[in-house]
Amino acid sequence: MPDWQPYLDFLTQTAYRAGRITLGYYQTGLRPDFKPDDTPVTAADRAAEEFIRGEIERRFPGHAILGEEFGLSGVRDSVTESASIRDSANQSVPIRDSVTESTSIRDSANQSVPIRDSVTESTSIRDSANQSVPIRDSVTESVNHWRWLIDPIDGTKSFLRGVPLYAVLIGLEVEGVVRVGAAYFPALDEMLCAADGLGCWWNGRRARVSEVARLEEAYICYTNVRNMEKYGREKAWQEFNRRAFALRGWSDAYGYLLVATGRAEAMLDPVMNVWDCGPFPPIFREAGGYFGSWSGQAGHTYGEAIATNRALRDEVLRLIADEAG
Questions:
Q1: How many structural domains comprise the chain?
Q2: pTM for this structure?
Q3: Average pLDDT of span 70-87
């Protein structure tokens, strides 16, 4: 298994720098364009993704990249590309540059702390038993590769209105499993990051899900109520609404940040793109929670997502299963 620390360093610093780019556009009256699905895109989205892609292409030439704004690239070369960069003598060399050397995450006393201590579809596919099944295509089936997942601004609608809950999301998927991820919230200056075996970190502190074990005490987050009915989740939504202590529209990536850091107990998205999920599988594995489908399969390729703490996972999934039954 590779040493994930260099990749975690790279992701956090790249997400941070991309986030600083977005702040140059934030609360400036920026006007969006609209994509074919009527979702907004701005110059800030494009600039941040171009920066992230450029950093990945420079450091990891040949790795595949899937981003919300510019699609998929680098598939062909990613088959033969190794995990390390090699020098002229074909020796593995550390993955370092001026970014990871000069920039660190800081704790509450402003002290540098080590991070280790510190396309496909937008709808899910279901089988005959109404269980979510992984979305597959020729890319994920035919290529055994390293793929970077990028959402340069998750929460563009919030960003456009000057709401500070948007995030830069980057995940590193290896052979179909996301191993490293970072979610940076530029307007809040909050960094959430994780890698397999290295823990989950929130601004230099260990991040853990809460221990709340009853829905009647739980805070439940969501992105869009209308999608509950649109994607066949209205009955489950009504049950959450009836039983939970509080439901709050702390939406998009921000809801997942709250669950991973113990400030909320569940986040519900009945529809979700792969790039929206990018960093969250390792974040929730390392924070002690669950991230995956509404049917209970952990992962990021189901076209939908739920995150919960471990104590509520079974009850949340049972509630959803009762809806399907």
A1: 2
A2: 0.80
A3: 49
